[in-house]
Design goal:
single chain; 111 residues; alpha+beta; 5 strands; 32% helix; membrane; transmembrane; PepSY domain-containing protein; transmembrane helix
């Protein structure tokens, strides 16, 4: 009879699971919670605004700035866009969360 199932085999599964868990934890620390690119956030905002009217121009600052509203602190990108509403061009400025892309602040610019 072949005794290939020695004492090392019962430890293979726990060691493999432990090593993969540790690798996942380390990768999460290195790669998790990174800011999104400014272009991606601008594309998301443009797509949301385009549902309600034609966008004629847009911009975004590629450097995030600290943003705080009450007790919430995060980084935000500043940007703006121009949209046609009732045959008039209307300008908006916005601040979007650098990590989620959600709008934190939106202002219609009156000229």
């Amino acid at each position: 009879m072949n005794d290939s199932n020695s004492t090392a085999n019962p430890w293979i599964v726990p060691i493999t699971l432990g090593a993969s868990g540790l690798a996942g934890f380390i990768c999460g620390k290195f790669f998790g919670n990174r800011p999104m690119s400014a272009r991606r956030i601008l594309r998301m905002v443009r797509n949301d605004f385009a549902r309600e009217g034609q966008i004629t121009g847009s911009w975004i600052d590629h450097h995030s700035v600290p943003f705080q509203r009450f007790a919430v602190k995060t980084s935000a990108y500043q940007g703006g866009l121009t949209r046609r509403e009732d045959d008039e061009l209307v300008n908006y400025e916005f601040k979007a969360d650098a990590y989620t892309g959600s709008l934190l602040e939106l202002k219609r610019i009156e000229e």
